[in-house]
Amino acid sequence: MTADLPDPSASAAVLIGTAGYVHLPQLPAVESNLQDLAKVLRDSTVWGLPEAHTLTVADPETPAALLDPVYAAGERAQDTLLVYYCGHGLRDSESADLYVALTGSREGAGYTAVEYRHLRAAILASPARRKVVVLDCCFSGRAARTLGTPNALAAQAGIQGAYVLTASPKDHVALAPDGERHTAFTGELLHVLRQGLPDAPETLDLETLYRAVDARLGARNRPRPQRSQENDVGRLPLVRNRAKGDPGVPAGPVMDAEVEAAMISSGLQLARLLRSVGRGRDALPVLRMILQNRVPDAEGDAVIVHLELAELLTESGLDDQAIEVLEGAFHLTHKRFGPEALTVCRRLAELLQSAGNHSQACDVLRHALDTLERGSRGVGPAA
Questions:
Q1: What are 324-379's pLDDT values in tens digits?
Q2: CA distance linking residue 371 with residue 366, whole number of Å
Q3: Cα–Cα distance between 114 and 128 in angstroms, integer?
Q4: 35 within 8 A of 54, measured Cβ to Cβ
């Protein structure tokens, strides 16, 4: 494991994008940006962010629809919070404040959009130790001129203790070239994440990503990105460098039951070894990766991984995430009889009770008693 990388199980990403507008030019490439960026962040050879920790907000119509997911993800994230926005960036006619557009936003009418300071407040509310903000915004010619110095946008978007990477082309044509799947900036960012950098270390920090994207955009005579950072956070590793990995091993191989059994066994051994030497933080992504790559038809020992992961999350004070994991195990075992099924029910009921979900805890315990009764009578699982 690479200890310096952010822990996927304690991190979250919110990917926001507006492709369709009532009053502004359409940006169809934004939809592809959201889909492909979510996929690459979940790739275990890049970051391995759990699907449940990757929130996609497409075409928000109201400020609450845009901001609420950021607050929700921020509450969960303890390690790293990544917030990405792609769409039109606007300036109010009465000020130089930055706004991010909603589907019904209008040029020169900031009150129809979301003022960036509100997005910044939502990000700052998170306890995450580092915050990454990526703004792939386009501006009208007038708005671009109001930026003043080359780094004005990045400076305005800056967040204390965070790294902000911005793209600010002068018009939508530069942002989303005709016939291309992605916007210019995000397309180059995805290229670097997918292909990696042969001359870079095994992990890529934000500064390295910025320089690579900047060079690729400059070589194609496209608008150059800007960045702002606090406390040199850009030097902290963020993702794995895929150029240093084994090109013969795909990101998400389809495994048969024997291969999965071997993976579970070796992964459990590694996780338990890490816990025994006080490195529980590094054990979390190991267990997460096992569950992410599990063969759907091979349930067996996967329940053990759920239990192990839930216990480690509970020890780390992440009870909400432990409940999610145990609920997954409950769905695997709810029609089976055996000690593991009963253990899942008992632990899930305990956590639900502690969280104040008394009725759900009772339902789980009632199911456990029914399962035990059927097993003692030799009756098969209920249909």
A1: 877 777 766 655 555 667 787 888 888 888 888 888 778 778 877 776 665 555 44
A2: 9
A3: 23
A4: no
